[in-house]
Design goal:
six-stranded antiparallel β-sheet, alpha+beta
């Protein structure tokens, strides 16, 4: 009896142990599921992060492609630099950007060709090509902060010029081991109080800089081939190309466009009296006065010898005559001094204005010939005057 009871008790006492074992197993199984789910969730999160990263890279590559197209299509030097500045501001979230590029004439300095509103009229800020910054940027071939640059070079002039622009990042514009210029990124817009650049962003801006450098080089070649090296005005063939486009646009937009033709009076006498170097001085001085009296959208060219032409887009007759008279007066009252000799220089001018109703010209040549005819009238009437082209029966 006792034995049976003990057997029963042993059976009874064994049951809880079995249940306890089953509970532990269930807990272990539940924990395993949690670990598995956590691992799967992490894998899904990692996969999502990778997908987002790939998506951003694809988007950025598409952006670079659009930027490359934009740069390649813009061959006007000033417009290209402005485009580069605005694109870099948008891509890097900065409040401003500026560009130094090699001087197109001498190639001796990197000249600040943007930031026109930051400095008074006169000589543009520049950095010598021989500056130590050139070698340093070619060595690192990556963007560097201004604080880093101050530790790398001891060129106080260069550092002073750069410091005036409040730079946060200096980006080299490199093409085929040549430094074509410097891109300066200014104050950055803070995102979550962090204004630093990630490695990915530095690589991104360097890719944009590489595209910009190629575009600047191409535009510079066109600029040099279309510019008179003495006066720095455009050449005749370039003037006619732009004039043809301007006539078409004026016709479609129902606007006026004006052509001014100037000729320096008695120019031969300067060469004969003082020598050809004096003649060159007069040409350059007159060209500089012409440029100072024009808008950025106007185009001045050295037509040939001592003749100059000016294209004034979207300009009515009375305004074109005012511009011509302003230039004539500025030259007439200017004191030209060469080797201590004070000289009086005057110019004569002819003005022609395209109008779809009253003066619909058939070609750029016809348009320029009209201004030339008016110039001839100014010459024949005593010089140092402006004449507006009229139809032959009304020419006066």
């Amino acid at each position: 009896m006792t034995s049976r009871l003990n057997d029963k008790e042993s059976v009874v006492s064994s049951e809880p142990k079995k249940r306890k074992t089953r509970v532990s197993y269930a807990k272990r199984k539940s924990l395993h599921d949690v670990v598995k789910e956590t691992k799967e969730a992490k894998e899904n999160t990692d996969a999502l992060d990778k997908a987002l990263q790939y998506e951003k890279k694809i988007y950025d590559l598409e952006q670079l492609l659009d930027i490359a197209k934009s740069f390649c299509q813009n061959l006007d030097f000033d417009n290209l630099l402005e485009s580069i500045v605005y694109i870099c501001m948008a891509q890097m979230h900065v409040l401003g950007a500026e560009i130094f590029v090699r001087d197109l004439i001498t190639n001796e300095n990197y000249v600040l060709e943007t930031a026109k509103d930051l400095f008074d009229e006169g000589e543009k800020p520049s950095i010598p090509v021989s500056s130590s910054i050139t070698k340093k940027l070619l060595d690192v071939q990556m963007p560097i902060t201004f604080d880093e640059l101050k530790l790398l070079i001891d060129d106080q002039h260069t550092l002073s010029v750069l410091n005036s622009l409040s730079p946060t990042l200096i980006v080299p514009l490199i093409q085929k081991s040549h430094l074509n210029g410097l891109l300066i990124l200014q104050e950055r817009i803070a995102i979550e109080d962090d204004v630093s650049y990630t490695e990915y962003e530095l690589n991104q801006i360097m890719s944009i800089a590489s595209l910009a450098s190629v575009a600047i080089n191409n535009a510079a070649l066109i600029e040099q081939s279309s510019t008179d090296m003495m006066t720095h005005l455009k050449l005749k063939f370039y003037f006619f190309n732009v004039l043809s486009e301007s006539i078409d646009e004026a016709f479609l937009q129902n606007q006026n466009v004006a052509v001014l033709m100037f000729d320096i009076d008695f120019f031969k006498s300067f060469n004969d009296t003082y020598g050809h170097e004096c003649g060159d001085y007069v040409l350059v001085s007159v060209a500089n006065i012409i440029k100072k009296n024009l808008r950025d959208t106007d185009v001045a060219s050295r037509y040939g010898g001592e003749e100059f032409t000016i294209l004034l887009p979207n300009t009515k007759t009375e305004d074109a005559v005012l511009v011509a008279e302003r230039i004539r007066s500025a030259i007439d009252t200017n004191d030209f001094v060469y080797n201590g000799q004070h000289m009086h220089v005057t110019i004569s001018c002819g003005v022609s204005v395209f109008d779809a109703e009253t003066n619909l010209v058939n070609s750029p040549n016809e348009f320029v010939n009209q201004a030339d005819q008016a110039l001839y009238v100014s010459k024949s009437k005593g010089r140092n005057r402006v004449t507006l082209y009229r139809k032959p029966e009304n020419l006066r």
